[in-house]
């Protein structure tokens, strides 16, 4: 995949004028998936899609998208299981999990992407750090992408220690906020920075507990809070970013410029890292379309709809174009003021897939003819 290689070799994650290269990489990926995944080929043929229609960047909207719910019901691979050297699953908070595989070239593209995007907020440093991971401690039974991502983030710097909030005991994960609190107090007296990584919900719960107990510390210089994975089952307790930032300053002494948030999905493994103004600008490695909830027509900027994510990163699985159950708005990048011109995505909330009547209809009808 020469065009994918060129695209992911771009060291400027937010460069202008990459549309021509992107559409070539997309067409290249689409053709590979079509030739190597029977189910995907059946879907494209059944929807009357012709790969030769992919000529300009506007044509990416014509690619039949697959809802993330689809991957929770079916495993789709375009390479052998042997070549899919890494497999990751979604968190499956509602019982259903997606499984996405990655071959060596996928991982290499992903590594180059992460290195480039992470430069935006200066995440890489030779200075050792202690880490508090508000996520799952790795266990052989846990293959979730969020666990792999959280662990991977502890390699942005040399890790002196890793303290996990969720530990595997007696066949299930249990939260240990008291143990994390003790670690925070301990490492607040260290000369090395402390970095938090993981779910914003648990991070917030810890800070709220500290405030209620009147435990306020000032973390070492260059300490950071890295957030990823969303609020999941705690969405009803989600607070505004301003509330989160104020509490972090109050109990940890961390300014909002040292709070960094990530967005992504196992079905769309592109790293979205917020800018200094806390906006998710779309990197050159992907494109985002916003679609009307009822008609699925592509909407313009500043209009709320379903988030359709497109990337030619992965060869092992046909995740070229996926429809999430996130509601979002795409904004003009220049309106942000951070200096990045690519559009930025604002996530508004989430809609249950059962409420989306037309998303999976076409694919579902076609799959009736496919032997799984």
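^ Assign residues to that structure.
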């Amino acid at each position: 995949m020469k065009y994918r290689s060129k695209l992911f070799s771009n060291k400027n994650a937010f460069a202008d004028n990459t549309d021509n290269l992107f559409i070539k990489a997309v067409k290249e990926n689409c053709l590979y998936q079509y030739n190597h995944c029977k189910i995907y080929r059946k879907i494209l043929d059944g929807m009357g899609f012709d790969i030769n229609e992919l000529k300009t960047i506007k044509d990416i909207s014509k690619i039949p998208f697959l809802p993330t719910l689809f991957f929770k019901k079916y495993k789709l691979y375009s390479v052998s299981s042997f070549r899919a050297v890494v497999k990751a699953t979604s968190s499956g908070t509602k019982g259903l999990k997606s499984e996405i595989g990655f071959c060596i070239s996928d991982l290499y593209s992903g590594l180059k992407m992460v290195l480039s995007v992470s430069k935006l907020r200066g995440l890489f440093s030779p200075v050792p750090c202690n880490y508090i991971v508000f996520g799952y401690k790795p266990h052989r039974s846990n293959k979730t992408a969020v666990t792999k991502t959280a662990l991977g983030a502890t390699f942005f710097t040399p890790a002196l220690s890793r303290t996990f909030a969720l530990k595997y005991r007696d066949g299930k994960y249990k939260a240990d906020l008291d143990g994390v609190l003790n670690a925070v107090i301990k490492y607040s007296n260290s000369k090395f920075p402390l970095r938090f990584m993981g779910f914003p919900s648990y991070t917030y719960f810890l800070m709220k507990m500290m405030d209620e107990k009147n435990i306020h510390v000032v973390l070492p210089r260059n300490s950071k809070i890295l957030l990823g994975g969303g609020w999941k089952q705690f969405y009803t307790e989600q607070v505004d970013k301003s509330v989160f930032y104020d509490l972090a300053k109050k109990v940890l002494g961390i300014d909002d410029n040292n709070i960094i948030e990530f967005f992504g999905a196992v079905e769309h493994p592109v790293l979205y890292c917020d800018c200094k103004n806390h906006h998710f600008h779309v990197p050159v490695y992907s494109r985002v379309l916003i679609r009307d909830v009822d008609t699925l027509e592509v909407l313009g900027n500043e209009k709320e709809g379903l988030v359709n994510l497109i990337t030619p990163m992965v060869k092992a699985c046909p995740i070229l174009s996926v429809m999430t159950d996130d509601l979002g708005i795409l904004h003009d990048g220049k309106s942000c003021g951070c200096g990045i011109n690519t559009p930025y995505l604002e996530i508004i909330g989430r809609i249950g897939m059962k409420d989306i009547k037309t998303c999976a209809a076409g694919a579902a009808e076609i799959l009736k003819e496919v032997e799984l």
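Residues 19-36 form the longest helix (18 residues).
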